[in-house]
Give the backbone structure.
Amino acid sequence: MADTSITIIGNITKDPEVRFAQSGTALTSFSVAVNKSKKNKDTGEWENEPHFFDCVSIGDMAENIANSFGKGNRVIVHGELQQRHYQAQDGTEKTKVELFANEVGASVRWATLDIQRTERKGGGGSAPAPAPKKSDFDDRVYDDSPF
């Protein structure tokens, strides 16, 4: 199987939305717009062509994303592409490609940061709490809107 790991840099298009599974594990979804610059052959001017990526994250990181970022923030997202098949509310079968975020950070190209460390959940030891499984959210219901 080919490596599906990618990194994108762009702006969040709306405030991240956090939901919780029955187990209590957080899931955050957000969309990132990445501009691709290309030269217009007719005018010779550079133009931006936006590309939109739906991103998801789970667990502590999902909550940190929802508490840290908002619409317009420039972020760096690294993760894996995953294709999800689901049944829409109207009963039709749908397919969606999402970027499952393993790491998300703020870009400091045009901004500064104030980093605050959060306490790890699950105990006081030095080992991180076990990561939630992607399968915790396989029962998500999507509507027809990609965002």
Q: What stands out?
A: The mean pLDDT is 84.
